[in-house]
Amino acid sequence: MPVAPVLVRLFLAGFFLLPTISRAQKIEVGGALGGMLYKGDISPTLNPRFVQPGGGLFFRYHPTRSVALRVQVSTGRLVGVDSLTTDAFQRARGASFRNTVREFAVLGEYKFRNYTPLRNVKNWTPYVFGGLGVFTHGLRQPGEKPLNIAFPLGVGVKYEFHRPWTLGLEWGTRFTFTDSLDGLKQPTAGTPRLNQSDPDTNDQYTFVALTLSYTFYKVFCP
């Protein structure tokens, strides 16, 4: 079975189970739109020239006012070009790549300011998040498993500009255990040195996004 439909099914299953899990807690659903950046052998630092479009869908539930749990699916493109660097080795290698990443993640968030479910209160807060994700990409090496593990870690801020609508800005990096996001081959006896990856470092990707979400507040009868 293709991996992408599996990730979508995981997201939908969690979405329909969430009301049962959270019961009386507030539920928040939304989307994210922004850019993805690759960091690895071809781009050792986050180079804004390589920003590519990315997006996702998510839902949160709030066990407490300071803690939230989020399930999210994301997808985006990654690119890198050796010719745009000043490093002599990379310019001699001349490698470039285009890749697509699809991700499913379960995240925990800590909000530094409590959201207050009262009328006429302007809710906003910075927050940090981290968790566990699985992802697939299009440049897997022979023998590499279709699903890879990632550890998302990041920061964000959100503002409830018009209840129940909230805008947010988020920056999150995914630390992975793969070195094949750029398509460079693992070092072997038959692989030219210029086409080899660095086995001591794994690739990463970063997702910077604007978010828009809708919160389902519990209605209290007078």
From TrEMBL:
InterPro entries: DUF6089 (IPR045743), OMP/PagP_B-barrel (IPR011250). It comes from Fibrella rubiginis. Signal peptide: none annotated. Residues 16-221 form the DUF6089 domain. This is Outer membrane beta-barrel protein.
